[in-house]
Amino acid sequence: MPNTDVTNGHAAKPAHPNSSPFSGFGTHAAHHGSDPDKWDFAPIVPPISLSTTFKQSSPGVFAKFEYSRAGNPTRSAFEECIAKLEGGTHAHATSSGLAATSLIINMLKMGDHILCCDDVYGGTNRYFNKIVTKFGIEIDMVDPTDLALFQSKLRDNTALVWLETPTNPMLKICDIKAVVKMVKERYEGKKSPMIVSDNTFASPYFQRPLELGATMSLNSVTKYINGHTDVCMGVISTNDEEVAKELRFLQCAVGPAPSAFDCYLALRGARTLHLRMRQHEINSLAIAKWLENGEKAGHVTKVIHPGLLLTPNTSWQRSR
């Protein structure tokens, strides 16, 4: 049976559930990546840097930026902000959420195995099962709420464990911390698989997979982080220096770079993420409760909403 009395690794707040468990979230969103002192003219809003190339002091010798596919001042501002919001040390922006997924898959090789949630974003499912498998990578799609079953599908060649919580579309809640513990125990003394958690539906406002032990946290920026339906982007966050180094290399080598203008818009969107997520939660929970108990409840078979499990003394993050 699901354990509905345990938070997903984050401390429960004594207040009502309509708030993030991470203090100062809005302040961090407003300031990180946007330090005016990074520029000699001290702008409050980071400028849009459209240059594709940057001056070299001599052939092959450049300052911070070389070529816009590898890095860009506006992109760096956005990445710095997201790394802070995710509780990470590095963030890597891409041109879409699926581009971020493909960047991670580029870290694998033929013969590797991926253990993935059985309920994931449709684009991820399509990419994994119709494209990734053509390159000699095996994939198992398993219900992550059944920890014993999930554990039984780990193999010696498992290189990546892919979680998504809440899942899209069925809103399953994966216990990230329990999966991390399981993986560490299974591979004790050996090279452990990377653990990725797609954080798109929760957003960093409600959940920080890195603090629960995940290797990487992925967000489709297109959804909540940007929040204005005018940018297609993705972002990967991590605390692992070696993983960050490889992702930075792949950003340049594979090339899924977002535009400077999109990074500017996404950074603008991130500043209001806390306000929007709080209201999304209030609105969606009100609808869920109306569907469950309102005048039309007799026409509804089942209402699926993580917030329906909450009590006034618990936080949004639930483990199963």
In short:
Strands 3-9-8-7-6-4-5 form a 7-stranded mixed beta sheet, with helices on both faces. A two-stranded antiparallel ribbon has the order 1-2.
Verbal overview:
This protein is of the alpha/beta class. The protein is 33% helix and 13% strand. Strand 1 (56-58) and strand 2 (61-62) form a beta hairpin.
Q: How much helical structure, as a percent, in the residues?
A: 25-40%
Contiguous runs where pLDDT drops below 50 for at least 5 residues: 1-7, 12-18, 312-320
Rg over CA atoms: 20 Å
Percent strand equals 5-15%
Question: What class, by secondary structure content?
Answer: alpha/beta
Shape: globular
- The overall average pLDDT, rounded, is 91
Tally of alpha and pi helices: 10
Biggest beta-sheet profile = 7 strands, mixed
Spell the H/E element sequence: HEEHEHEHEHEHEHEEHHH
Distance between the termini: 8 Å
- Spatial strand order of the main sheet: 3-9-8-7-6-4-5
- Overall number of strands: 9
